[in-house]
Amino acid sequence: MKSRSMRPGTLPHLAQNPCVRSSHMHRPRHQVVHPSLTRRTAIQAGSIGILGLGMNHLTALREASATSGATSPSEMSVIYIFLSGGLSQLDSFDLKPDAPDDVRGEFRPIDTATPGIQVCEHLPMLAARSEKWSLVRSLTHPYNEHSEGHMVMLSGRSKLPPTFSGAKPMPEDWPSIAAIAGDQLAPRNNLPPAVILPEKLIHATGRVIPGQFAGEMGSNRDPWFIEASPFHSNTSKGAYPGYAFHHQHGKHDAKGLEFQAPNLSLPEGLHAKRLKLRMDLLEHVERQRRDLDRAARTETFDRYRQGAISLLTDQKIQQAFDVVNADAKEQERYGRNSFGWSLLMAKRLVEAGVRLVQVNLGNNETWDTHGNIFPHLKDFLYPPTDRAVSALLDDLDERGMLENTLIVMAGEFGRTPKISRLPQFYALPGRDHWGAVQTVFFAGGGVKGGRVVGSSDKTGGYPADNPQTPENMAATIYETLGLAPTAAWTNDVNRPHHIYHGTAMPGLS
Q1: Under CATH, to which class is 77-254+332-498 assigned?
Q2: What is d(CA 206, CA 481) in angstroms, rounded to the nearest whole number?
Q3: Core-most of 92, 137, 202, 398, by most CB within 10 Å?
Q4: How far separated are the first and last CA of the chain, in Å rounded?
Q5: Residue 118 contacts residue 95 (beta carbons within 8 Å)
Q6: Distance CA 227, CA 215 (A)
Q7: Each residue of 327-379: pLDDT tens digit?
Q8: In whole angstroms, what is the distance from residue 269 CA to residue 260 CA?
Q9: Distance, CA of 367 to CA of 123 (rounded, Å)
């Protein structure tokens, strides 16, 4: 897979966009090199890219030592649902019906199946399944800017890296949770240990959001992206096609947006039984080996080659990606939209052997509700999310997988306690960025349902008790995956870097 780069230049003037900070107004000179795959790149038999679903060549030819520490006996998996833009805690899982009008908003709470726990009236399916999930209403960090919030919530570290730049990812950034999981866990069934889908997080201007990559671990350990919903400059947000919207104008045409399952088919005319007989296949593989990494050990390469061939001919693996052609009832259950397809793919990948799947529900800033917050949540964001997450819970439970699969759902921050108005941009009110508190959703993986950990104050602005941090959230994920408290990754000079920077959240199990 060839790496792609962005042309040098600067971003257009964005003073009219209240979500963009002036310090982040420069386009990165080069887009981060990372694994990627689109439908248009059909993977040929023997191609190293097949193993990583579009990973770059260095990732495919990692030294065996990169996974030598991945000896975790745990069979647990994690699905991390990331709501880029920032979900309002006050209008979802932590409503304040007794607060003043300019705090409580338009939505009303409804009872869940668990006495004493209420959620937003527009999340009825999740409300009916409260015995399967719990909430942490007191996660806090100090940042109110998108890039900073992404950095800390995707890496699980509250302190920003010393060379942090909101304008682009930096080589010294903290590694993401997905990158660490991919480095520390052993692959199963020829699948990578950790993947991110259905897209990288890219601002509508083309700016790549920091926090998603391996950072100081080195680009050869970047997470493996399944680009089923590749970046498009279309300003539509949300679960296209049925729930696409524009932050200023509401319902929006999703033209140009297509959910694309990776193409894992064999070359035309080449059947599985003839796969090993094709000499040109072997020649192609050998040529790739020489071009990709002359220093790679032959035995390591052979292991990846065999894995690629096995993956290519494995019908179960191919089925995991082909969600747009899944059974009609299954698609209806999750929703025939980018949110539903993404979570269906995540479930199938976990079932096939992937240990951590990060699902970006919505392209960058989909949940950034500065204005028109109430109609957009009610009409465009909550319906597909409520359906898809509920379907995921039920599906995993029915298959006996929920106890072994932790689901975490969070954004980069919450939203301001007070409703704000920006009439020059939006017809109706909204809420601004707010890192001081947000609610994080947990289910499965040993989490006891029907619990609330921590609380926010009477206006939903700050933790009132039991504050938790991104470090605690990350530790919960790592512990679930079976990583030891002493686990560390090592750099090129064999210097260890500890993975845990906090302890797992108490009260969930």
Answers
A1: alpha beta
A2: 33
A3: 92
A4: 43
A5: yes
A6: 20
A7: 999 999 999 999 999 999 999 999 999 999 999 998 878 999 999 999 999 99
A8: 23
A9: 16
